[in-house]
Amino acid sequence: MAIREGCWDCPTCGTTRLLGRQLACAGCGNRRPEGIRFYLPDDAAEVTDAERLAEARAGADWICEHCGVSARATQPRCPGCGAERGSSPQQQTHEHRFGEPAEEAPRALAAAAPAKRRRGWKGPAAILAVIGGMVWYNGPVETTATVAGKEWSRAIEVQEYRTVQEEDWSVPHGGREKRSFRAVRDHRQVLDHYESRTRQVSERVQTGTRTYTCGQRDMGNGYFEDVTCTEPEYTTNYRTESYQEPVYRQEPIYDTKYAYEIERWLPDDTMWARGDAAKEPAWPAVRIGAREREGARIQRYVLRFKDDDGKTYEREVTPEQFARYRAGQPVTLRMKRGGNGGQVEIVEPDAKS
Ligand SMILES: [Zn+2]
Ligand SMILES: [Zn+2]
After folding, report:
1. If you average pLDDT over residues 21-49, what whole number do you get?
2. How far is the CA of 13 from the centre of ligand 1 (A)?
């Protein structure tokens, strides 16, 4: 496991990047105090010198309980006041895993990572601008025109009561059965046989383990040691597997079906009435014969318009609108931008006109 030399910053004079091996500040000469936090620069090289390695592996510094300065694990007496180690406590050690936030960001590391400057939050504004542009582009436009024509049509369906032939799974009320027979009413899935098939299957198999550096341990004496982790390594194996697949067939389900005669009201004819601005809308005259009746009624009203450029438009309207607009009357039309005739809306003046 690789060992690297860390740094510390002097809290008295502010000198930075003092070497881990230094027990006193190179700037002001003050002793390294208790609780100093070591950090590992990104470019820290691996320690290979035997003496330094021994120094690193000797253990954490101890803090003199009398004067508070740091002493190496190998020093039996305090370099500050000369007292014996006695019951003096050790400098704390820390372990940091990569990807986990540091308990307290050491100054040099914080300075090394450039703070991201917040840029203006332009995204949504830009999107809104684009959407705004699209609405403007596809938005409706208005034009003035005059009513150039009116057309109406009204229709009444005439139904006849007729005898018809029908078939069904039962005879409805009023039906007269003519004959019955067996017919296929539905199908059901029946297991017919199994077929042998093959398919590729994959299996994840562990092939070994991988050891990697996953963190750094602050040894409490200015040195840092790599923390190693292991994780399993896998490979995917493929093999061919055979299996039985069920094959189904459709089997018909029979039932009794009936052929019968019955009377039904069926459309026989449609009577139409049509007209323009010169003729008031009216229903067509209908002559009802024996075994006949009136069916559905439909009505349709269309206004035609012409604008100053001679372009024509049309719009299906309600009977009320049809009655309100006279030929030659000016109107405002709303349509899709770029629309060439086709569907238009009438912009109605407020309420009563
Ligand atoms: Zn200093
Ligand atoms: Zn001391």
Report:
1. 91
2. 4
Ligand nearest to the CA of 27: 1
Instruction: Kindly tell me if the per-residue pLDDT of 118 is higher than 80.
Output: no
Residues, beta carbon < 5 Å, ion ligand 2: 64, 66-67, 78, 80-81, 83
Q: Return d(Cα 202, Cα 78) in angstroms, integer.
A: 65
pLDDT of 138 reads 63
Dihedral (C-alpha) 98, 103, 107, 108: value to the nearest 10 degrees? -20
CA angle 217, 79, 104 (to 5 degrees): 30
Q: Is the pTM value of this prediction over 0.90?
A: no
Burial class (CB in 10 A: 0-12, 13-18, 19+), 282: exposed
Q: Over the stretch 123-171, which tens digit does the pLDDT of each residue have?
A: 555 555 555 555 555 677 888 999 999 999 999 999 999 999 999 999 9
Nearest ligand (C-alpha, residue 9): 1
Task: State the distance from the centre of ligand 1 to the C-alpha of 33, rounded, in angstroms.
Answer: 10
The DSSP annotation for 98-109 comes to TTSPPSS--HHH
Between CA 135 and CA 74 the distance in angstroms is 79
The ligand placed nearest to the CA atom of residue 31 is 1
Count of Cβ atoms closer than 10 Å to residue 256 Cβ: 11
Q: How far is the CA of 52 from the centre of ligand 2 (A)?
A: 24
Residues around ion ligand 1, judged by CB within 5 A, are 10, 12-13, 15, 25, 27-28
C-alpha 220/C-alpha 71 separation (Å) is 11
pLDDT in tens, 72-90: 999 999 988 999 999 999 9
Distance 73 CA to ligand 2 centre (A): 14
Q: Which two tokens stand for residue 145?
A: 């025109």
How far the first Cα of the chain sits from its last, in Å, is 94
- Residue 296: name the closest of 159, 156, 160 by CA: 156
Is residue 295 within 8 Å of residue 187, measured between CB atoms?
A: no
